[in-house]
Write a structure and sequence with these properties.
two-stranded antiparallel ribbon, eight-stranded mixed β-sheet, alpha+beta
């Protein structure tokens, strides 16, 4: 399924042998983070755990902040997320994986702390649901952490090609005083 195409999944559930409810198929939502810095953009792959939460995983696509390389990387990671099987495991396994995931972008950038990373990279949350795409640029809160809000601009509307997503991200980044 390409960008802008809709994939429909059943909302049916089934009981698991452990007594919990397990969705038969993933919900129709795919999301990724694009971290844009002065010279490069980082897009970690995403994995889904047993709760259908997405978390950062290696490999990380590292590309120049140019339209074509960024668009290709967005498409590649998005399609990999859409096809990625669930990561099975216990609650403990998933907690450990989420702890590891927190460091994936830092490791790719060669930066040791989130504070330094957030000062060097702007984060853009990109997500697809049904026939829409959402692009949310970040700002730093008073504590130096990423925060996202619809009032920060970005895009919400009909699904658009990855080249348009990359253009919106690049234009926002270059329009910032520190970009």
């Amino acid at each position: 399924v390409g960008v802008g195409q809709r994939r429909r999944y059943s909302d049916t559930c089934q009981s698991s042998s452990s007594g919990g409810t397990v969705l038969e198929k993933p919900e129709p939502f795919v999301g990724l983070n694009v971290y844009v810095g002065r010279e490069k953009a980082l897009i970690p792959h995403r994995r889904r755990n047993i709760y259908y939460s997405h978390f950062a995983a290696e490999p990380v696509k590292i590309v120049t902040v140019e339209l074509e390389p960024l668009a290709v990387a967005i498409d590649q990671v998005r399609l990999a997320v859409d096809a990625e099987p669930l990561t099975p495991g216990t609650d403990e396994d998933n907690t450990r994986l989420l702890d590891i995931a927190k460091n994936v972008p830092l490791k790719a950038a060669g930066i040791r702390t989130w504070k330094a990373f957030a000062n060097a990279y702007v984060c853009y949350m990109v997500s697809w649901k049904d026939d829409e795409v959402f692009i949310r640029p970040s700002r730093l809160d008073r504590a130096g952490r990423y925060e996202f809000h619809r009032d920060f601009g970005g895009y919400r509307g009909p699904a658009i090609p990855a080249t348009e997503i990359a253009r919106i991200i690049i234009e926002d980044y270059k329009g910032r005083s520190d970009g």
